[in-house]
Structures are given as C-alpha cells and as structure tokens.
Amino acid sequence: MPDSEYVVLLLPSILTLFLFFILIKRKRTRFNLPPGNMGWPLIGETIGYLKPYSATSIGEFMQQRISRYGKIYKSNLFGERTVVSADAGLNKFILQNEGRLFECSYPRSIGGILGKWSMLVLVGDMHRDMRTISLNFLSHARLRTHLLREVEKHTLLVLNSWKEDCVFPAQDEAKKFTFNLMATHIMSMDPGHPETEQLKKEYVTFMKGVVSAPLNLPGTAYRKALQSRSTILKFIEGKMEEKIRKMKEGRENLEEDDLLGWVLKHSNLSTEQILDLILSLLFAGHETSSVAIALAIYFLPGCPTAVQQLRVEHLEIARAKKQLGEMELNWEDYKKMEFTQCVINETLRLGNVVRFLHRKALKDVRYKGYDIPCGWKVLPVIAAVHLDSCLFDQPQLFNPWRWQNHIITKHKIPSL
C-alpha cells in the first residue's frame, strides 16, 4: 500500500487524538485556581508547612503566603495538589458541605497507624455509623448521670495525689487525668491498676509515633508506634473476649457497661472494626482534652482577673451545695459555670488544639471566583481564623469575656 494511503487511513485517528488533547488542555486551563506556589517536585512545600511554631500563632510559613497570595492559596502539600484556606467563610463552607462536596482525606500514614476503620479516616456511611454508635453511648442522660460524676472523681484523684509545695509538669498531670477517664469509660479500667499503667505506657509510645515522620524503619518512632499499636489492640481484644464470655455466662450486663460493652451489645461491627474504633476514640478523647487542660493552666496565670472570676463562680456553687447538704456536682451545677465555659472557649481559640483539617473535594467547587478541582486536597486552617484580627479584637490576648455574648465579633476586654 502506498504511503499516501497510510496517511489517509491514519488521518482520522490523528485528528481524533489531536482534538482529545485539546479538550484535555482546555479542561485543565478552564479552572481559575487560587494564586500560590507548588514548591518542589513531590514534596512540594510540606516541610515548610510542618515547621514547628507557637500554638498562639499561624507560623512564618502561613503568614508569608497569606501576605503574598491572600487567605486562599494553592500549594503542594503531603504529596497532593492542595488549596489552603485561612478564610473563615470558606472554612465554614467546607465543613457545612461535609459528605456532599468534601470528605475527610488524611495522609495514608495516619490510616496506617490508627487503622483503616478509624473514624478519623473513614468517610461516608461507615463513618456515620461509627459516629452514631459513639454518640448513642454518650447520650444526654449518660452525660448527666455517669460522665459528670466520673469527671469529678478522676479530678479529685489527681488533685489528691499532689503534695504541698510540689512541682510537677501540668501537661503530664492533664494526660494522666484524661487517660484514666477514657480508660474507665471505654474499658472499665481502674486508675493506678498495673494493667492500666502498662496500657498507658504503650499508649505514650504509640502517640510519639502518630506525630512523627512516617518512616517504618528499625528504631524510628513510627516503627515503635506500630509495635505498640499491635500490643494495645491485643489488649483490647482480650477485654472483648472477657466481656463476651461473661455475657454468655450471664455475669455481665453489657447494656449499662462501658463503650466496649455498648459496641458489642448494639452493633454488628467486626472485631477489626471494633478494635480500630476503640483505639481511635482513646486517641481522640485523650489527646485533645489533655492539651486543652494544659493550655488553660498556661494561659490563666497571665490573666489574674479571669482566675479571680473563676474562683468566685466555683465558690458560689460550692457554698450553695453545702447549704443544701449535697456533695457531688450535678448537671445544674455544670450549667451554672458560665464563665468557666468562656474560659474553655477562649483556651480552644487561642491554643488551637486542632490547627487544620484534611479534606478533599468530591466535585469541582467554585468559591469567591476561585475553583477547587475535584480530587484536590483542601486544608481549612482553623488557627488562621481564630487568630484573625478582622474577627477578634487583639486575637493574641487571652480574653474569656469576648465569649459572654456567644457572638464571634470584635469584643473589648473589661477594665482590669
């Protein structure tokens, strides 16, 4: 066949490929992406983004990019094309459209260490089911009758362990309190018991690996954490088998038991799913709460007026209870702690226990003229909103009174 005939036969295919590439190019270029810099190949700007900085700031990396590009910018983080948002409106939009336009998308290493059934990495129906099981256990009635009583009990255990004029690390004491509380409610473990202390030791090793570089090499924190994870899961599984055995023997009422018993009683989850759920809740409940408590202890000495107002609020409650001949705190007492709630809110705002979230766009999304393509990672930076001077007057100042009207706007600190 002559060469000219080959060309004629191939021409339609060549034209089709040409048009196909034009369409792809148009699709790629039609997005109006936010400004930004994608950084180095593969690693992008991840190293700079994760550089340590004070919890009461957004860090030099974020500050520089917001100054250069604005509150919404693009980057390459955690090996993925990313839109970073320090914009309060976009952050709210992302969270309000969870499951419709966006979904959780944490790095693969997080799923590797917390487990593929962890609520932190699950999306869709499975995440909803796991969340429902957990929330049903922590019902309003249980919070009022069980949890509040246990919080007071474990608080007194920690306070009574302190010696007069002793010095101790506040964060360690906060971690002791939250771990014991979570271990009690999750698996009915007694504080100070040898098995509780051993589990706590493994958990500390596990936590060091969660926040370390995901290098599964001998001697690394990540490898040690994986080994501790295996030990913790075996321990939880042993508790499961013990509860199931007691249930069959009629010696344990799982209906009113701890979270592990509740899950066994009220769900059809597999053993692997239960293990990951229990581990993820132990992680979530312990870590964030202990950091928040330590931050409150750190912030309060710098604001003596807040300490005095807290003391007055709590002494009034104690005085009223004494007159009634009551000892334990109840739900009505908790509701009277209005300024205490303001202190908690301000601690979470200024301390930024959770600095940013990992999300992924499920569809092409447009916001304020910018496009977020389907499949792109989205990082709502919560800390940037909490420390925004357009939303909070003197955002670096610890000012619990700004929350008294429950309005996020500019507030003035009262005369001291």
TrEMBL record:
UniProt-listed SUPFAM superfamilies: Cytochrome P450
Domain of life: Eukaryota
Lipid bilayer topology: Single-pass membrane protein
Assigned GO CC terms: membrane
GO BP terms: brassinosteroid biosynthetic process; brassinosteroid homeostasis; sterol metabolic process
Keyword set includes Membrane: yes
The keyword Transmembrane helix is annotated on this UniProt entry: yes
GO molecular function per UniProt: heme binding; iron ion binding; monooxygenase activity; oxidoreductase activity, acting on paired donors, with incorporation or reduction of molecular oxygen
Membrane-spanning ranges: 6-24
InterPro entries: Cyt_P450, Cyt_P450_E_grp-IV, Cyt_P450_sf
Pfam families: p450
Record key words, sorted: Brassinosteroid biosynthesis, Iron, Lipid biosynthesis, Lipid metabolism, Membrane, Metal-binding, Oxidoreductase, Steroid biosynthesis, Transmembrane, Transmembrane helix
CDD domains xrefs: CYP90-like
Reaction catalyzed: cholesterol + reduced [NADPH--hemoprotein reductase] + O2 = (22S)-22-hydroxycholesterol + oxidized [NADPH--hemoprotein reductase] + H2O + H(+)
Localization per Swiss-Prot or TrEMBL: Membrane
Family: Belongs to the cytochrome P450 family.
PANTHER family given in the database record: CYTOCHROME P450 26, STEROID (22S)-HYDROXYLASE
Name this polypeptide is given: Cytochrome P450
Organism, as annotated: Rubroshorea leprosula
